[in-house]
């Protein structure tokens, strides 16, 4: 009996050490610059382009534009898809191209203009996706319009819009007319600042053709874009995860085509390529009744994609855009039909986003590539239940906690500086084995500008289970000031969290106008206390705070 009590006591001591003694330290050296804090996060995308100009779509786009010090890029599917513009989940249409009874092209840019006008009016930039195939051009047009809904088999969406054109010359003329129209409407200088791209995930059922047919379509598209605007930027191929054999092989074949294969249009060797794009997704699942994320899966896609690009000396300098970079693959699959997606409403999505973006920068440094942006494939869904668990930034016009991470990123500028931490997982550890140890990943990303600095920090773990709050000590070295103004921002259960407020209301299906105002306020980025001015001793400043599991903090310093 004595031995049993001894063993029990030992287990309790070990448990207490894990649960209550997670004292994290982060050391920030403002003199050790490691690279520019370029806004790789200021890119967003979504399947349903017709949401763009609807009420909540316009509201969210305005907020995204406001949170960034530089123009935000927006990527949307279905910009050439045939239809009347009625939105639906994983669907959209513009009817840009139809044909008359004699088979002559009929162009109608009305809906496309509504979409791009909404972006340009807000100072945003389209990542203009050339796709999908209009019904009149598809080699297998029927069936065309799908009726997918959450819970249905995903393959039902791949209909006539996925197939190659029956006439490549007509396709090229469509692309030429679109770019020409854009220059006439928005001006040469504006359209030069956009990124044009071809298709989406052509290594998957999104493309009903072969690799070579995609390369052929790319050659025709590039030639058409450049005929309309010789200075336009165009790239691709937006394959799925390069760490998978399918995506990786497709990316290599496409890049080889651009470098050394015969161009289908010109007959010469090579094809213009201004940027390279691929996708990267995580893989959450349910484990013993709770959500377990898998950040490592997403980071392995990114690392492999960077490595593939770096293996082409002629292309290594080109900008890389991770065209969809998310914790998993289906934004429109809500948590009721896909319970592994239950991370989306609360702070787990926030901490995952903060921790993963820091590692994207680190992997780009490792592979020495030109990392330009990572598109968060998350927007909003009109006329859907409140907090349904879509992968979105706002619900019914109310911002969710994850949006406030991007507001935090918007307060960081200048040069990234070195951060070390006793509980901060190395980037390669997260890439190779995710965050599965007993201790959480309490890490940071810091940047310094001329008269200010910012430290973003998080308390992340792949397992979404209750855990003790961690104490966090931030030590900033080489501060070039005697006094600094310090402002704390926080995302946790009590701050910047409309979801928790909604639950406390009783999770109303139809909130009252007064409740909506309260939710809108709760959805904004909140300060932790009031800003303080503090004296700096020997160019060093120590800030002690605490952070809930899955919480995110930001400290800004001005002098």
TrEMBL record:
GO terms for biological process: carbohydrate metabolic process. Residues 27-523 form the Glycosyl hydrolases family 39 N-terminal catalytic domain. InterPro entries: GH, GH39_cat, Glyco_hydro_39, Glycosyl_Hydrolase_39. Its EC number is 3.2.1.37. The active site is at residue 201. It is an enzyme of class 3 (hydrolase). The keyword Hydrolase applies. GO terms for molecular function: xylan 1,4-beta-xylosidase activity. Pfam families: Glyco_hydro_39. Signal peptide: none annotated. Keywords: Glycosidase, Hydrolase. Gene3D superfamilies: Glycosidases, Glycosyl hydrolase domain, family 39. Belongs to the glycosyl hydrolase 39 family. This is Xylan 1,4-beta-xylosidase.
């Amino acid at each position: 009996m004595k031995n049993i009590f001894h063993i029990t006591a030992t287990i309790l001591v070990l448990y207490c050490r894990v649960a209550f003694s997670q004292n994290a330290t982060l050391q920030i050296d403002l003199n050790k610059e490691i690279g520019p804090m370029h806004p790789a996060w200021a890119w967003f995308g979504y399947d349903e382009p017709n949401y763009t100009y609807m009420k909540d779509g316009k509201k969210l786009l305005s907020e995204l534009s406001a949170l960034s010090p530089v123009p935000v890029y927006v990527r949307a599917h279905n910009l050439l898809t045939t239809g009347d513009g009625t939105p639906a989940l994983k669907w959209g249409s513009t009817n840009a191209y139809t044909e008359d009874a004699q088979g002559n092209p009929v162009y109608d840019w009305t809906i496309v203009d509504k979409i791009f006008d909404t972006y340009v009016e807000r100072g945003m930039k389209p990542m203009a996706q050339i796709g999908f195939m209009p019904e009149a051009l598809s080699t297998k047009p029927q069936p065309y319009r799908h009726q997918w809904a959450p819970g249905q088999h995903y393959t039902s969406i791949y209909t006539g819009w996925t197939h190659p054109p029956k006439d490549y010359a007509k396709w090229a003329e469509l692309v030429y007319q679109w770019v020409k129209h854009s220059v006439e409407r928005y001006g040469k200088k504006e359209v030069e600042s956009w990124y044009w791209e071809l298709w989406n995930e052509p290594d998957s059922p999104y493309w009903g053709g072969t690799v070579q047919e995609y390369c052929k379509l790319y050659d025709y598209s590039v030639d058409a874009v450049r005929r309309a605007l010789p200075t336009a930027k165009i790239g691709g191929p937006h394959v799925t995860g390069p760490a998978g054999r399918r995506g990786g092989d497709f990316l290599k074949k496409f890049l080889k085509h651009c470098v050394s294969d015969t161009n289908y249009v010109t007959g010469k060797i090579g094809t213009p390529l201004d940027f390279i794009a691929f996708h990267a997704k995580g893989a959450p699942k349910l484990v013993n009744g709770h959500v377990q994320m898998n950040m490592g899966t997403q980071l392995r896609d990114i690392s492999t994609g960077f490595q593939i690009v770096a293996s082409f000396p002629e292309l290594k300098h080109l900008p890389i855009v991770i065209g969809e970079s998310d914790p998993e693959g289906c934004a429109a699959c809500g948590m009721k039909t896909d319970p592994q997606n239950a991370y989306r409403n609360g702070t787990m999505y926030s901490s995952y986003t903060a921790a993963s973006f820091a590692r994207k920068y680190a992997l780009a440094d490792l592979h020495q590539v030109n990392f330009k942006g990572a598109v968060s494939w998350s927007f909003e869904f009109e006329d859907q239940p409140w907090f349904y668990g879509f992968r979105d930034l706002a619900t019914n016009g109310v911002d969710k906690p994850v949006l406030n991470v991007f507001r935090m990123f918007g307060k960081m500028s200048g040069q990234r500086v070195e951060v070390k931490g006793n509980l901060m997982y190395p980037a390669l550890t997260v890439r190779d084995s995710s965050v599965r140890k007993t201790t959480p990943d309490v890490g940071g990303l810091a940047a310094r500008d001329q008269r200010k600095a910012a430290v973003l920090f998080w308390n992340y773990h792949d397992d979404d289970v209750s855990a003790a709050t961690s104490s966090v000590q931030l030590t900033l070295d080489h501060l070039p000031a005697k006094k600094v103004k310090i402002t704390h921002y926080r995302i946790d259960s009590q701050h910047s969290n409309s979801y928790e407020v909604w639950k406390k209301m009783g999770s109303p299906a139809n909130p009252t106008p007064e409740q909506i105002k309260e939710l809108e306020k709760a959805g904004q980025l909140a300060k932790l206390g009031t800003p303080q001015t503090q004296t700096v001793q020997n160019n060093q400043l120590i800030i002690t705070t605490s952070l809930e599991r899955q919480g995110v903090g930001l400290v800004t310093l001005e002098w």
